[in-house]
Amino acid sequence: MGRSPCCEKAHTNKGAWTKEEDERLVSYIRAHGEGCWRSLPKAAGLLRCGKSCRLRWINYLRPDLKRGNFTEQEDEFIIKLHGLLGNKWSLIAGRLPGRTDNEIKNYWNTHIKRKLLRRGLDPMTHRPIIDIAGIASQQEGAAASIATAVQTIRYTKPAAASEAADSAEEGHSGSLLEDEELGRCFDNSRELNLDLSISLPHSPMSATATTTAAEAPGSGSEAIICLCCHLGFKNSTEGCSCSRAMAQTTNVFRYHRPVEEGGYNAA
DNA sequence: AACAATCGCAACCGCCAGCCC
DNA sequence: GGGGCTGGCGGTTGCGATTGT
């Protein structure tokens, strides 16, 4: 059984694309647009798998691609987005015009990982490595499975961790969920609510940034912003469930950040 | 100069979700 | 409802380029 192949492998080229193949693909897409990738190779006279054509176009031939080195600002932006989204390269790429998911993924693996390690941060969790080692030691014994689950939850919302790590230089405090709180969330819900929302940090700075934002329980000065909506990952017709999630604020993981515009720019 | 090791990136692979019939 | 098809995604691999010995 198994999957049917996406194309007839016996008659398809593999490996590096030639100039001629590139030209064929580009001219076809210019003439007909991005249509059905499966039928495109045949229509364009290419001995390539449709997937391969799509990848070549998206990652290399698209006219709006910005090629060349990443700027320091892009670096920091990627780090922050990765802190928020994890390895969701396509989502990260969606926030960086002219960059592809593949490019960002490669760049992350070859440059940024090392950069974070040099800063003493774990590239996956964005937490200080010493801190992680401490948690790892606590995980030994009977609590290991719970602690692992907590780490997993933390990974869905690690932005606060990166914010915390940067807080010394950025001047605002991250609001990392305490282990106890994370454990409670996990224990209560048994399932992860992946709706992300944003609220103001608990720092004094945030109070000055508060405008007409909804008051959040507990802090008295938190504005809750749905991350999906704020970043534009969901359009208005897709019915983000943020309002529902916010009505049940107990198990919603929030990303705390200042409200002012440009907050995602590199510090 | 020759070889080995490492790096960087393009491309591939397999899985998954959404759509359509 | 479910099965097949397709597009899209993230992880991994392959290989040329670069650097070190």
UniProtKB/TrEMBL annotation:
Residue stretches making up the HTH myb-type domain: 9-61, 62-116
A GO molecular-function annotation: transcription cis-regulatory region binding
Compartments, record wording: Nucleus
Ranges for domain Myb-like: 9-61, 62-112
GO annotations of cellular component type: nucleus
Main location (coarse class): nucleus
RNA-binding recorded as keyword: no
Top-rank taxon, per record: Eukaryota
Claim: Transcription regulation is one of the keywords in the record: yes
InterPro entries: Homeodomain-like_sf (IPR009057), Myb_dom (IPR017930), Myb_TF_plants (IPR015495), SANT/Myb (IPR001005)
Keywords: DNA-binding, Nucleus, Repeat, Repressor, Transcription, Transcription regulation
Protein name per its UniProtKB record: R2R3 MYB
Source organism of the structure: Iris fulva
